[in-house]
Amino acid sequence: MPAIDFSRFHRYDELIAHLKAFAAERPELVQLDFIGNSHEGRAIPVLTVTNIATGAAQDKPAYWVDGNIHSVELIASTACLYLTHWLLEHYGKDAEVTRALDTRTFYIAPRLNPDGAEWALADAPVYVRSSTRRYPFDEEPVEGLVVHDVDGDGRVLQMRVRDPNGPWKKHPDQPQLLVRRDPLDAPGGEYFRVMPEGTLRNYDGQSIRLAGAGGHAQGLDLNRNFPAGWRQEFEQLGAGPYPTSEPEVRAVVEFFTTHPNICGGTSIHTFSGVLLRPFGGKPDDRMPAEDLWTYQTIGRKGEALTGYPAVSIFHEFQYYPNEFVSGSFDWIYEHLGMLTWTIEIWNPKKEAGIDNKEWIHWFRDHPIADDLKIYDWAQRIAPGEGHVDWKPFDHPQLGAVEIGGFNRMAVFTNPPPALREQEVARFPRWLLFNALVSPRLELRAAEATRQGADTWRVRLAVQNSGWLPSYVSKMAVQRKLLRGVLAEISLPAGAQLVQGRPREALGELEGWAYLHTPVSFWGNPHVTADRAHADWIVRGAPGQVIGLSAHHERAGRITASVTLA
């Protein structure tokens, strides 16, 4: 296996080299493909991980994992690399990993947004939300604060400017920290204005505002460009001009629609230290009950295996009251009925010993004692990097400023180097669980029973050995997406089909996810709902071989043959 330093973030060429090494060293388990090109023309990689000796990837139930759709969320790429490495290292040694790669397929896309990541990893980094394409207008801002590394130290920090009417003041116990002024603080004290590090275009000497989205012309959010619940810019910033307008998102959507064997997927982001489930834009009572119960069961397993809480996006992860998120990767559940999760890696405030019950609103307001906890923690884990001491700088437009403050890229957006591997090591076992609960079509029986001098009854019996039903979710049933199990018979020359059709529809097969407990008075009326069979009457000669097969878009494909005797 290739040696990978999981404490480092890898630029595009190095990342691709690692992926090629996986495929070169374990060709029986790994294939590298590219599913499209980014805005700047970089190929978007996807690894297919399965044991090809036990069947083609597309003939097995599959699970998708991606990362780094947001440019600065680089630990998401690391998590995908780690998952791949972990699967290959454990294949043949760990029973569950071996079973998964023998019977399922993983599609792993470690960097959906190679352009944004490359900007973030540059020697002179530029941090944008997502895509590097200018949006909503195709020109650079002519005025305002453009965020970039002004002092050339390879970091984008904050600038503070003394102002007797500024809204910030020094923390009473740590002068390196800034906190908001109290409501009744008298004017004229030692106060500051704080802004991102950058330069001002066409500065009028008075007004300072960011130039464009976040101080850049790049206002797209690729994770708002998916089809389900897509909303225009006036309703949701960064959504793009129309669903799948962006090549990175379009490549993912096309991959899913051409790989119906995918049963679910996880998109990896940062940060909050939480496992997120649908809906983004609707309450739980709008979800089919069986799907909600399934999500809750998988979420409890996730909590046990990762240590992260599992919560609803709509109920517990809203950015602003009465507003909601849509147009995201939840598309695979809302349109395709595939189960979807988002992992938000890393929770710095929890690491600092601050209560973890609030993921979003803490950043708007919290006790100043929390600031001191964060500061002390950042100094311990990343001395001189987590929080950078303020230093004087002669700014080209503002004159005397100081540059420093929290280095968000070092300790907030991503874990610091020493903690990266142990953080991403939380997830492979739960992702494996998500893959293994998928439906799995298996052969139960294939037989030919003589009915007359030259006729036989041919039977193909199949079963679903997976926990989930063959259709995966009730949402898929509502969307009328699937045909159920299809059984087919293939006759040799001279044989004749007397009764039955060449292709028989056998319907959907249940798993055991929805069974009531043994003490339930409702009971489980269909005892063999996981089984189905097809019968044909065939006229032929002894010794002839009849081909049989069954397949389901999500549960996989099986083949068999019987000899007339």
Short description:
The chain has helices at 12-25, 75-90, 95-103, 114-120, 247-257, 289-306, 313-316, 331-334, 348-351, 368-381, 408-411, 417-424, 428-436, 474-478, and strands at residues 30-37, 43-49, 62-67, 105-109, 144-147, 158-162, 168-170, 178-180, 192-196, 198-201, 262-270, 274-277, 310-312, 339-345, 387-395, 399-406, 441-450, 455-464, 485-490, 496-499, 503-507, 531-539, 545-552, 556-563.
Give a description of the structure:
The protein has helices at 12-25, 75-90, 95-103, 114-120, 247-257, 289-306, 313-316, 331-334, 348-351, 368-381, 408-411, 417-424, 428-436, 474-478, and strands at 30-37, 43-49, 62-67, 105-109, 144-147, 158-162, 168-170, 178-180, 192-196, 198-201, 262-270, 274-277, 310-312, 339-345, 387-395, 399-406, 441-450, 455-464, 485-490, 496-499, 503-507, 531-539, 545-552, 556-563. The chain is of the alpha+beta class and 565 residues long. The strands form 6 sheets. An 8-stranded mixed β-sheet has the order 1-2-4-3-11-14-12-13, with helices on both faces. Strands 9-6-16-15 form a 4-stranded antiparallel β-sheet. The mean pLDDT is 95.
Describe the structure using short key phrases.
565 residues; 4-stranded antiparallel β-sheet; 22% helix
Subunit arrangement of the protein: single chain
* Number of beta strands: 24
Sheet with most strands: 8 strands, mixed
Structural class: alpha+beta
Shape: elongated
Over all CA atoms, what is the radius of gyration? Answer: 28 Å
- Strands of the widest sheet, in order across it, are 1-2-4-3-11-14-12-13
- Treating each run of at least 4 consecutive H or I residues as one helix, how many helices? 14
Strand content: 25-35%
Helix content: 10-25%
What does the average pLDDT come to?
A: 95
Low-pLDDT ranges: none
Alpha carbon gap, first and last residue: 50 Å
